[in-house]
Amino acid sequence: GTARPLALLLIEPATGLAARLHDQLLDLFPASLDIGVARSLREAMHHLSTRHVDVVLMDLMLPDYKGVDAVRAVRLTAPACALIALDA
Predict the structure, then answer these.
(1) What string of DSSP letters covers 45-79?
(2) How far, rounded to the nearest angstrom, does the alpha carbon of residue 51 sit from its chain's CA centroid?
(3) pTM for this one?
(4) Element (H, E) at 27
(5) Assuming Cys at both sites, which of 58, 67, 71, 75 could form a disulfide with 11, CB separation 3.0 to 4.6 Å?
(6) What DSSP character marks residue 36?
(7) What is the bridge-based pairing of β-strands 33-38 and 6-11?
């Protein structure tokens, strides 16, 4: 059978940066990624609780949570997914 695309959630409040990352990831991995985008931790929690996610790529400075607290919240909601945290 065909392999399921890798489900990635991009948590990034800056619309322009999120769009650039989204496009770059799709250019690098055409047809093998299913990318969701969340602008806040609250949006991300909804996405994580309603869909399967393999990898979370997140900004540590979100409008509703910052740093370690944001990472901890994602970890509690989706303990099995890979997590890559980016900090400016």
Answers:
(1) HHHHHHS--SEEEEESB-SS-BHHHHHHHHHHH-T
(2) 12
(3) 0.89
(4) helix 15-28
(5) 58
(6) E
(7) parallel
pLDDT tens digits along 24-39: 988 988 778 999 999 9
- The answer to whether residues 16 and 59 touch, using CB atoms and an 8 Å cutoff, is no
Checking DSSP bridges between strand 82-86 and strand 55-59, what pairing results, if any?
A: parallel
Residues with Cβ within 8 Å of residue 41, at least 6 apart in sequence: 11, 62, 64, 65, 70, 73, 74
CA 81, CA 52: separation in Å to the nearest integer? 9
Neighbour-count burial for 35-46, b at 16+ CB within 10 Å, e otherwise: bbbbbbbebbbe
The model's confidence at residue 2, banded by pLDDT at 50, 70 and 90, is low
pLDDT given at position 3: 78
Count CB neighbours of 21 within 10 A: 19
Q: Which amino acid is at 39?
A: R
